[in-house]
Amino acid sequence: MPPSVVVSTLNVLLGMARVRSVPRNINLPETFQQNVRHLLTMPVSKYAFGVALWAGAELGLPLTDDVLHHIDGMLSDKRQWRSFRAQDLGMIVVGVVASAKLDRKKWSPMANALFAFLLDRYYSPAGLFFDAAFGPRRRYASFATQTYLLLACYSYGELLNDERAIAFANTCTRKLIL
After folding, report:
1. Which of 26, 107, 155, 170 could form a disulfide with 97, with the two C-beta atoms 3.0–4.6 Å apart?
2. What's this model's pTM, rounded to 2 decimal places?
């Protein structure tokens, strides 16, 4: 199975969290766990771990201990943050924020730290976002760059009632519409 199938399946499962009645022949917990297990055996992007956190939180399903350990290791080593592209950081922030809704004590400090990093390294005075924290790709942003990071700002702002985060996302949204 290609790594893209794992991430796509997690995205579909995330959407299934909003379905009123899941057909009986779809076993969400089993499908979720099966795909989460593949995250450590395949070359997936870092954002896949954010999608897994988000889907797990929305579905009320736990991630496996080994995947949580991997995520904890990735997030506790701030040197690794330097390599995050916008999609990585955006989806990780959204996943951490979704997890914080269920366990504020564990996840809120990480959400705060990641959001501070987002503002420090990705937010441009022009009201748009950079694609990377450092390096030559930093200023080569795309529409997707903006989308992932404004979603992160909205998610964070809603969780913590942070008007500043919402304002950054609104500014970016207005720029994109223009």
Report:
1. 155
2. 0.95
**Each residue's pLDDT tens digit, 68-106:** 999 999 999 999 999 999 999 999 999 999 999 999 999
Tokens of 72: 């904890």
Residues of the chain with pLDDT under 50: none
Residue in this structure with the two tokens 């954002």, named with its chain if needed: 47
- The single-letter code of the amino acid at 1 is M
Residue 76 structure tokens: 């506790």
Token pair 């995205």: residue:
11
How buried is 171 (Cβ within 10 angstroms: 0-12 exposed, 13-18 middle, 19+ buried)? middle
Say what the pLDDT of residue 148 is: 96
CB 92 within 8 A of CB 75: yes
Cβ neighbours of residue 75 under 8 Å, at least 6 residues apart? 92, 96, 110, 114
